[in-house]
Amino acid sequence: MKPRDEVQKPIRLMAAACRNMGIGKDGRIPWNLPTEFQFFLKTITAVCKSGKKNLIIWGKYSWFSCPESVFPMANSLHVVLSKKLMSVPKRAHYMCEDFVSAVKLASLPPLNDLIETVWILGGTQVYKEALEHPWCDLIYLTDIMADFDCDVFFPSFDQNVYRKQNKFPGVPNEIQEENGIKFRFQVFMKERVFSITADDELWQRSGLK
C-alpha cells in the first residue's frame, strides 16, 4: 500500500542508441550531433506549469561523463545514484543509494508538489529498473542510423508493451542528418493493459463488441 501523501509521477527515459543499441564508449558519446543534443536538453527541461521542476535521475557514471557546460539546466533538480560516494557530487542536488529511493524523492513530501516529471538518463542498469517501474510511460530513444564501437548499451525492452509512435507531439518525424550521420527521433509509449471480465471476453469473441 502506498503512503497516503505519495503522488504518482510520470517516469520517462531519454537516450540515443546506434544500430547495435550502443549508447556510449569509454564514458563518452561516440557521435557528435548538436541538433540531437539540443532536442535532448529541451525535452528533459520542459515543464507544463510555471514554477514546476523535473527530477533527473543519473547513474554515477552517466553523471560524471556529462560535460560541465550543460549545467545549470533550467527547471531541473538532479539526483545521482551511488552506494559508494561519500557526498552529493558538485552540481547535483541529491544523492540516493538506489532507484526506488530516487523516485520517492519526487513522489513524497517535500518535493511531490514541485516535481512534474522524472527523467532517466542512464546508465544501463538504471534504464532497466525504470523500464520495469509501473509509472514509466514513455521512452524517448533517438535512432542513430550508423555503426559505432560502444561498451555501454541501452537495454532491450518489449515493443509489445512499449509501442513505437508514428507521430508524437513536439517530436520531429523525419530522418535528419548532421555531420554525415543520419538519425531520427523516436518515442515509445507504454500500452495500457486493462483486465476484462468473462462476459467482456465473450462479447469480443462474438465480434459484436
Automatic annotation (TrEMBL):
Q: Name one GO cellular component term.
A: mitochondrion
Please name the top-level EC class of this enzyme: oxidoreductase
GO terms in the biological process aspect are: dihydrofolate metabolic process; folic acid metabolic process; one-carbon metabolic process; tetrahydrofolate biosynthetic process
Query: Which Pfam family name is an example for this entry?
Result: DHFR_1
**What is catalysed by this protein?**
(6S)-5,6,7,8-tetrahydrofolate + NADP(+) = 7,8-dihydrofolate + NADPH + H(+)
**SUPFAM superfamilies per record:** Dihydrofolate reductase-like
Give the pathway annotation: Cofactor biosynthesis; tetrahydrofolate biosynthesis; 5,6,7,8-tetrahydrofolate from 7,8-dihydrofolate: step 1/1
- InterPro entries tied to this protein: DHFR, DHFR-like_dom_sf, DHFR_dom
Where does the DHFR domain lie?
10-190
Q: Which domain of life is it from?
A: Eukaryota
* Keyword annotations of the record: NADP, One-carbon metabolism, Oxidoreductase
What GO molecular function annotation could you give as one example from this UniProt entry?
dihydrofolate reductase activity
Q: Which Enzyme Commission number(s) are listed? A: 1.5.1.3
The identity of this protein, by name, is dihydrofolate reductase
Q: Which organism is it from?
A: Ameiurus melas
Q: Supply the source organism's classification.
A: Eukaryota, Metazoa, Chordata, Craniata, Vertebrata
